Structures are given as structure tokens and as C-alpha cells.
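Entry 14. Two folds queued back to back today. First construct below, sequence then C-alpha cells.
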Amino acid sequence: RLETKVIYNEWFPNIIYDIHQMGNSRARFFVPPFFDPKNPNVHPLNDHMMMIIGGHIAAELTREGKKGILNSAMYDNWWQGGFRTSAYRHNITGILTEAASVLIASPIFQRKSELRGSTRGMPDYAIATNFPDPWPGGWWRLRDIVDYEKIACMSLFTLAARYHDLFISNKIKLGRDSIERGKTEPPFAWLVPPDQHDARTAAEMLSILHATGVEVHQAEDEFLADSVRYPAGTYILYCSQPYRSHLNDMMERQVYPNRSYYQGGPPEAPYDMAGWTLPLQMGVRSVSVYQPFESQVKKLDVVTLPQGKIIELPQKAGGYVLKAGSNDNYRLINRLFKASIDFQIISFPDQWKEKTGMEMPYGSLFIPDMNNVSKAALQLLEGISTSLTGIQQASSQVKAACSNISAPRLGLYQPWTASIDEGWTRLVLDNFEFEYTSLHNAEIRAGNLKNRYDCLILPSVSSGSIIKGRAVDTTEPQYVGGIGSEGIIMLQNFVQDGGTLICIDNSCNLPIKYFNIPVRNVISNKASKEFFCPGSILRIWVDNKHPVGYGVQQWISGYFARSQAFELIEESKSGNNNLRGTVVRFPARVVARYSDTVLLESGWIRGKEHIVDKPAIVEVQYGRGKIILIGFRVQHRGQSHGTFRLLFNAILYSTIGPIS
């Protein structure tokens, strides 16, 4: 955030140099230009400037006798999310170099026979146009990395000083071209109407864009765009602005080209993500405008987040209600838990309407403790957007429509193999004020988990990593190994004793394989040639009458990154299972399905027929507890706000009272 503020709003550099290290089995040093595919939002002048800088660096390295310089391979400029790639969309020439790594700082010796090519742009470790002087092998040291990078930096400084007028004038041209193209080419603007399912998240999305230098306007009067009438208060993101490329790249739906390593062969994987459309990830309704239009607007210096409030009745209220649907509700829920203020979940909206005359969606809250709420209102609602509405009815009158809930004792599994997904999960839980404990292998193996936890989360980690962990002799003894077979048994016991086990993406395969539940992963053995979906956004149907789907719209966009799709089978593979002497058939219920019509919303998918209409989220009853299999990344990189509620609901489901 600090870098974004400085670079795109204050400093406005002409060149950004991103210095990285890569694996050590290929080239010694990568320089631009980049590999295909090219993102159409990147100005072609920027591509040519990358070639000039990369060529200058490569020539300087070669002149100094440095071998193994590679270009036009591995790394592409399709993806938006990198430090250097975001720069392209802001009229800055972004440069990336990647040096072959050592063992932190320990030298390594590599024979030529150990060196190999790459799957993208370097099929063999051999002389080629983009790899004209291969490194022959030998000792590779930290000193070598420093030498290569010093030469690269000095080359860049020399070039920038010698042609500073060229770089500055090109940056100005890129900005002017963006402004002019926004006046003559559609889309002319992106609209964010005020009637959002979650107004706070919509405002957060606009705030994110504004922080990256995008100009945000708001309509002061009603206006007409593409023959559709929009109300005052609609946010308008005009495309005629210097950072048009960034705006379009964040708002539009990506169409990644269908690429293979060879004709008829397996798909060529993108460097990172194929699709990232921000409104889809965040669950925000946006509209592109394809004809010029006029409106009375004001330019915003800051995007104001909606502020929560208490709406009192003219006479004394019997309690308060909170409508399901906003992510901020969960911040309030966690504050209510912390303040020991009782509340209930509206699980039977029809009965609620019969008693109160109010329509409330599944998962809304009823807070009968009105005095404590009024006293703590400032603390409860500080910095959040939820509004509490007073009602006449007392708790006894609406009791039949509600379910009790208590604060869940939550554990988040943290493997010693270092899971990126665990870190993102932790960030999201922290941001929404969930209290939790980081749970490690030894505690799982020790058992008696239900005495300490109501709910356990396994982030997206492979079964092998969870069970085996780090190999012996690779680290200190206390960090070696995984949960082992004894840990599997303890997780089984935890669920059988009434606990809730939430598995996200890859970790779903652990209970599928080791708990003998009636669920199959339909794409677990599919070759990439048959099915492939890397980092894309898919359309998903949600049963929002199920507690995991409370407050979620019926159709959502979910982030699928080589994720999972399920199939229910009639009973477990061995027929009935004996859980402590009780025969159980493991009833399962589908909470969400991948769309059976329009499936891909942004990115790339091959072999979509394998997951069309297949379950994406499944609840399995296991003994007295339950397993929630979430087949896609509902908390992906802390960005997919539109699906956070599915994780939050699954956590709260662990302590919700009986729901018929």
C-alpha cells in the first residue's frame, strides 16, 4: 500500500526495476522482453521500451563475460498482480530480472548435465536466439548473483541517464494516449450503481482502485447511459484518464488464449493467474458503458465507506435485527461475542415474517439485549457499515424463528511446510476480527481436540504435506513430519465427537481419501490435457437456505485455481461404517454447484464438461459432527470478498443450534 501510494500518486517514476531470483537448474539470468501471451491493455510502446532496456542489460552482461543470459521465456506480461506488471498499466516501463539462486548464501556446484530447459520459450538447455551464450556449469555463488545484478543496475542507470528525455516523453505519451483512447474507444466508463448486495464491499473496491491512482466520480443527478437510467449516487469510472489501462484491466473479464505446448498437446500454463476481474472477485455489480454519455458529477478525493447506525423505533424497541448479506456483519458478530451480548440467527424467515411482518433473509440476526447494545453502540459499530433496526417483538415472540449460537472455539491448521493459503486465511480472519488459535502437527496428534475446539480449518494444503510434512534432517526435529496416521485418527475422532472440520480446496482430498466419506473428487486424476483451469473465475450456484450459504446471493463468482469438483456417491466404499459401534451412512448435502450453463466468467478453462453442474461445496455428516468441503479458494489472496461469507458461515455453523 505504501509503494502504491508513493509510485502511482506521488513519485510517478519512468522505470521500475524488480529484482528477483528463480530456480537454479536453467539459465543464470533472465532479462526482458517477456514471453507470450501479451495483455492487450499494455501499450505496445511499453513492450518496445522493455526490449530496449533488456537488450542493453544483456549486452552489458555479455561484454563483461557473463554467460547464461535468457530473454523471451518463462515470464509473461499477461498477469496484472506483480510489482512490475502493475506498472505497465500505469504508463511505467517495468523491468524484471531473475537470477539463478544458490542455497540462501551457500555456493552450489552444477554439472552441465544437470542443467535443463524450461517449458516456456526454452525447450532445451542449448544455444538459441534468446539464449545465445549458455553457461557451461560449475560453481555458482552468491558473489555471482551480486555481480550479475550490479552490472544490470549500472546498465539501467546508464541507459536512463543517456536517454532520459526519451523515457520521460514516452511516459507522457502513454498517459495522453490513454486519455484520448478513453474518449474514442469503448468502454467509455465503468459504473458501480448504489443498489449493491454489500454496499461496504463495493465502496472498498472503489477505494482500492482510487488508491492505485484511478479517478473516481459520483453522479449528483440521475443520468442515462446506453439507454439505461441510473440514479444519483452512482459511481462513475471514466476511461478517459491516464491510468485507463489499469482501470480496464481490473474491471473487464479476461479471455486468456487457449495455448498448448504443441498442437494437440497439454495446455501451456500461464505464469500466474489467467483471470482476476475485481468486481467478480469482490461480488460487486458493475456495468460497462459503450456509448458516450453526459452526467453531472463530482470528482472524489476520497471514497467514503458507509457508516453503521442504529435505527430506533419511535417507541421502545423489543430488540434489534440485522439483515444478512454484508461482510461487515461478521465483524459485528465477533464484537457481540467479545462483549458477551446474546443474539440469535434467523433460521426460519417464514415464521419470522408471520410474527413480525418483516421479510428477512436466512442468516439475519436478532439481538434481544437492546439495553447493552445501546450502551455499547459506539464501540460495536465503529468503522463498520452494518445498521441495526429496532423491532417491537420480544425474544419470546420470535423464538421459534431463530437458532441459538455461541462463540466458536476456532483452530486454524498451520503446517511447518509454510502454506501461502494459511497465511491468507489468517489475514482474512484477522481483518474480520475472528478469534482463533494456530494449530500445529503435535497438537493434532495429541488428540482430545473437541475439548478445546468447535471448529478446525485446514487451508489449501495437499494431503501428502499435511500427513508427511518436512522430511527428516531438513530442519529442527520439532518441525519434522506431519500429522501422520495418528493425526488422521484424531481428526476423525474430533468430527465424530461433534466437531466441524472445514477443508479448503486441496485439503478436501484428505477426508475424501482417509475418512471414507461418500464424496469423490471428479478431477483428481484428470490429466491437464483433459481438464485445466488455472487461476480463473467461475460462476457458482449457492443454496442460501443452508447455513453455509446464509446471506450469499444465489449466483456468485468463485476463484478456481487448479481446484476441486465433487460427486456424491450413495454410500461409502465399504458400505456401512462402524463408528464406535454405530452404523452410519454419512448423509451428504450439496451447498454449492458449478454452473450448468455459463461457467467461465474470467480467465481460461479447458474441459469444462468435467465440472459442469458438479458440487463445489459439500456438507458431510460424520458421527455427531460435520465436514465442510469447500472446493475452491473462497479467501483467495485476501481479495475474493464476494465469497468470504462462505468461510465465515461455515465457522459459525459449528455452534449454531439445531436447524431442521
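Second construct, same run, same settings:
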Amino acid sequence: MDIKESVLRSLEKVSNNLGFSINEIKVEIPSDFTHGDLTSNIAMQVAKSVGRNPMDIANEILSAFPKDENIEKVEVIKPGFINFFFSQKYLLSVLNDVNSNTEYFKLDVLTGKKYIIEYTDPNPFKIFHIGHLYTNIVGESFARLVEALGASVVRANYQGDVGLHVAKTIWGLLKMFERDSISFEELKERDLVDRVRYLGDAYMLGFNMYDDEKDKIAIKEIKELNYYIFSLHIPSLERKEYFNKYEQLNIKDMYFEERDWCLEYFERIYARTGTKFDNYFLESEMGQKGLDIVKENIVGKGKGIFKESEGSVIYKGDPNKGLHTRVFINSEGLPTYEAKELALAFKKYEDIHFDHSVIITANEQTPYFKVVFDALSQLSPEIASKYLHFDHGMVKLPNEEKMSSRKGKIIEGEWLLNETKTTVEKSMLESGRWDGQDISQVSDTIGLSAIKYSFLKVSVGKDVVFDFSKATSFDGDTGPYLLYVYARCNSILSEAGDLKVDFGNKELDVYSKELLRSISKYKSMLLSSALSYSPNTLCTYLFDLGKTFNTFYQNVKVLESDNSAFLLSLVSVTSKVMKHGLNVLGINIVERM
């Protein structure tokens, strides 16, 4: 039993003995460490039901609280909080445990549970934008957080390779071939990045023309291309008279080859961000199954939850649940995103047989997902009950209207990676502490840490503003700062050479004690962060640990002290906790900075 659980059990026993009845007693880590290592508001919870002053109840509980060698002090503060401070004996036991126990960081809360976490979900034929990069980083942190609690995780990526965006791109591409006097064969000779960016330009051309309602011919041709591309994957679709035209233009081969370019390009970005997916799903693979599911459950068939309406098939959302009506099969007989999403839910469960399925998307998709999950709950309550959807806000740049990287209103994910790396390299060069070779070896890792930490330190669901100068700073609440803390620990340990580390029972000075108090909270903060899918909680903890270590380092002369061997043990354990925490966030460490 850990100390938090021990305090909780003691509070339960004391409150019962005093005649207080409460369903749930909370013991938490206070945000302000001056308020103790653990805190409980039990007195305020009880006061509401018994009509007494919470301070009186807190003091009564304090008087009855049993002696515990792991607790040095218990105090009551207004308006009725009970705060617990760890003893030196307990803190030293944590120090020894982190150092000697090879499984110290292993938590088995979710052992035996299988998760499928779907994230990134870029669309081939469109730009891999900053929002995809954000979802990739958050999704990877979710996967690592639940893995840290013992769960097995299947990383999944659902990529939209059919739909109007594809038709817009191919239509735009045909027009650009005419405009630029090049052929598809000539485009194939270009570098992969150039090819993909050419497709991005083609998409913007098709997008703008489709939105211009004056150009009826463009709209008609894009709709035809859309139907034709769907037909490549759905055998049951009716063959149209215009198919001959697109077959003569070799659209089928162009489509599949261009899709492969995009998927290869995406893999380059995944390799750079440190993501390896276990399962890839394509929208094109879900079309026929989505049609079948919906058609088999139209009113009068199956569950009877879908309804034919003006040539389409719809799901009428219950307004009392805040749901609206969505089209699942459109008037052309094509499955919409909603139908394909239903097919994906069944496909995932069929392939993975998960305990929990987590999906991360932009928040504008939330209303759509609510309707899909409501329909899924009627088709398969078992599968629907295992789903959890997280939405996220926008990722913005300061004064982003000035960004030269924009494709319309789109900021490329790779551009952000490259620009951040360049900013880091410039900062490192100006500092004079690195030579050119060192900079080239670590600048991408440091740049990634800046992006990942900036994204993850903000609560999922809120907008993120990425500021290059702030995010890449080696001071303050940043990824590079945390890497620097780890590297400083590593440097001290390297400088100590063969000096043995001593984890024995020593009298703690105030700075060593504060550092140990911070270290002792790691597993609880990791647990809280993972169970609530809040990587920002872990980010906040690591930043506080970094600040506490730097205060320790500035005030305690580790290598010059008579107590160096013991102080080195604190440095060693700090580096282990920092490295583990950064790894859980998906941030690679740098050994020397």
C-alpha cells in the first residue's frame, strides 16, 4: 500500500470512529507544496451533512489521526483542509526505491486492458497541417500514458483517401497540368516533397473552384470524379456514362499512385515525431461496409434507426440530447463520413477486440461524433460503451496572417518542424556553447521537445498558441528547459567520475528535502495524468521538478560538499524521474547541452 492509500484508509477509519459518514474521501496532492505533500477536504465534506464548522471537524479528525512514521506533521488550515507532510524516513525510502528498484516506475493499474488509440488521421491529397501534427503528438502521449499504467495499446491511424477533397485535388491537378504544360509522368520525376506540395496546390485550386458557385462545370466535374473514385472501392455502385472519360485520362492509376506519395510522405513525418502505428485504416475500405450497415437498419429492417428522406438516408438525432439530423447515405448513393465511421467502429472491434477505444479529433467534429456514437449505441451498445472521444482546439501562431507557409488558411506541419529546428539552431549558435556538429546532431530533438511540450502543457480541448521564441527558450516552462535540466544532471554525474553514490540515511538540508518531496510525488502525478488523459498534468509536474532541482543545484555545492556521495544520489534519481517523465510525453532526451 502506498502512502496516499495509507492516509486515505486512516482517514476512513478515523471518520467512521467519530461517527462521520461520507461516501468518498479524497486525498490529493496540493498544487502548492507549502500546503503539504498530501491534502484532504474531508472536514468540509462532512460539515455540509452535519451542520458543523469544518475547522472544528478537521481538528477533531487531527486529534484522532494515528501516528505514522511516514508522516512528519499533520496540520489544519482554513477553511478546513487537513495537510500531511512526509517524514524524512519516508523521503529517504523513496530515494532508495527509485535507485534500487528496477520496476519502480512500473504501474499495473491497467494491466490486462487493451486500448486502441486513433490519432493523427490526415487526409491524403491534402496538406499535412499543424492540426494533424498536434493530434499526432497528443495521441502519442495518450498511448504512452496508458502504457505506463500497464495497458497494451494498439496505435491506429484512419486516413481519408476518398471524398470530395480527393476529387477536388485530382480536378485541380488536371487543370494545373494544362496550365504548367507538364504531364503526370513529369510530375513523378520530382522529389517526393515537391510532388506532395504540388498536390496541395491542386487541392486549393479545386477547393476554390468548387466553392465558387458560379462555375457550374467545375462543380459538376468534381462531383463526377468523386463518384468515380468511390466506385474504385465500392463494386455495388452503378457505372455512369462519364466513366469512359476518366478511364481514358487514366485517373485510376493517378489516384492510387498519388495516394501512395501522400502516405509515404506522412510516414516521414511520423518517423520524425517518433510515432509508429500498429494499424492503418483507410476510408475507402469502410465505404461498402458503411453502406451495408445503414441499409440493413433502415426503418422496417434490422434496428430500424435510419430513415429515407428525399433520396438520402438520414439519422434523426434527438434534440433533447443536443443532437441534430445527419445524412449517412447521400442522394448519389454514396456513404458519408458518418456511415464510414460506423463501419470503422465495427472493423476496429472485429480486428482488435479492445476494452477501450480512444479517438482524438478537432473540436469542430464533436457534433458529428455525438450523432455517430448515438447511432452506434443503438446498433451495438457494447461497442459504443467502450468508446471515448476527445476533441481539441485550434493551434495558432502569433500574427499568423503573416506566415509565408500558408496554403489558404493552412499551416504545414512539416514547415513548423523545420522552422522550429532552425530557430533552435540559431539560438544554440548565438550562445557560443555548441559547435556546428553538436548543433546538427541535437537541434531536431530539441526543436521537437519545444513543439511537443508547448502542445502538451495546455489542457486538451483548449486552443494552443505556439510562439517560436518562447517555446524554444532554454529558460522557463519549455521543453528545451526540461532537456537542459536532465543534461545538467547527467553532466554533474559525469564530472563526479568514480565517486560512489550513497543512498544511506542522511540528515536532509532544506534544499535536498524539497527536491525529495518533489520526486516522491512523481508516481501519483503520473497516475493522475494517465487516468484523466491530461498530459498537461505531467508537464506541470516536470516543470516544477526542474525548478526545484535548479534551486537545489544553485544552493548546494554537490561536488564540493563533504556529503557529495549522498547529494549525487539526489542528482541521479532526479535524472531518472525526468527521463521517464519526458519519455512518457514522447520527448527524447539529450545527454549533453
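Quick look at the second one. The first strand starts at residue 27 and ends at 28. The two ends are 39 Å apart (CA to CA).
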